[in-house]
Amino acid sequence: MIDQSADHIEDFLRRMAAVERDLGHPFVEPRDAATLILIDRSDREPKVLLGRRHPDSKFMPGVFVFPGGRTEPLDRAMPAISELHPDAEKKLLTRVKETPGGYARGFPLAALRETAEETGLLIGVQGDEPPASPGGLWEEFAKARVFPDLGELYFVARAITPPGRTRRFDSRFFTTDASSVAHRIEGVVGPDSELVELVWMPVSQAKTLKDMPIVTGVVLDELANRVAAGMGHDLPVPMYYMENGKFFRELL
After folding, report:
1. What is the pLDDT of residues 199-236, one digit of tens each?
2. Which domains, and CATH codes, for the chain?
3. Radius of gyration over alpha carbons of the chain, in Å?
4. Is the dihedral of CA 130, 70, 230, 252 positive or negative?
5. Who's near 167: CB < 8 A, 6+ residues apart?
6. Angle, vertex CA 88, rays to CA 84 and CA 94, nearest 5
7. Do 196 and 61 touch, CB atoms closer than 8 A?
């Protein structure tokens, strides 16, 4: 069962609130975003894939992050070999204002596309024929005959950037097993790229990194608890947000 003790939750909220931030900017509506945590559970301790952002990046330079970014309309149109588990879809549609066609499936698909764009890794199942690509980077999936496998993606957490920041995201975090890497595009990661290096790191070691956004460390804790609880689609998904200057952790 996922650890939901008062002390455990309070520690999460304290860590979220302690990070230094400038909250004096005008209100900005958060943009939908999605992130993918690749996890390798072949050894005794699970490892996760982290990428270090370019040191000259205007946004979070030099820090370790999971691949991810904003959703795009094309994402919802990409066919998949399996669809979202009903429990995951229900949680993705909770606490949202609008739900256009394919809204929920757009999040895991965005996480897969962003992972391909930033790491060169295409996640899914390789088929005999190419999927019908809606365009953009999904063309790379079609070339490699890789179909997204949404049923194997687990919804781990949701976090909304606090009001008052210049950039705000309503981010959904997903995880899937490292064995789901079906193809690699070479030359994506390097000294002149968005991510300058990729590392597989034990979860316990990753949580000690200082050059990591606070939300990444918090989600790592949530991931570890989820792995210990059996990684089921029916497990509750924590949602982090700030309201009236105070952080909250709500279970979806």
Report:
1. 999 998 998 888 888 888 889 999 999 999 999 999 99
2. 31-242 (3.90.79.10)
3. 17
4. negative
5. 28, 59, 161
6. 125
7. no
Give the closest residue to 55 by CA, choosing from 44, 47, 64, 46: 64
List all residues 6 or more positions away from 92 whose beta carbon is below 8 Å from its beta carbon: 84, 103, 104, 107, 155, 172
CB 107 within 8 A of CB 32: yes
* Beta-strand relationship, 146-147 and 238-243: unpaired
DSSP 54: P
Side-chain half-sphere CA neighbours of 14 within 13 A: 6
Q: With bands split at pLDDT 50, 70 and 90, how would you rate the model's confidence at 145?
A: very high
Length of the chain: 252
Residue 17 tokens, joined:
């609130």
Bridge partners (DSSP) of residue 243 are 246
Two structure tokens written together for 107: 């999040």
Supply the DSSP symbol for 82: B
Cα–Cα distance, 86 to 153 (Å, whole number): 12
Write out the two tokens for 155: 């919804």
Closest CA to 153 of 81, 225, 96: 81
Is-above-0.85 flag for pTM? Answer: yes
CA distance 119 to 183: 11
Which pair of structure tokens corresponds to residue 99?
A: 């739900």
What does residue 44 show for φ and ψ, rounded to 5 degrees?
Answer: -60, -45
Strands (E), 22-153: 31-40, 47-53, 64-65, 68-70, 121-123, 125-126, 146-147
At 123, the amino acid letter reads I
Contact by Cβ (8 Å): 225, 67: no
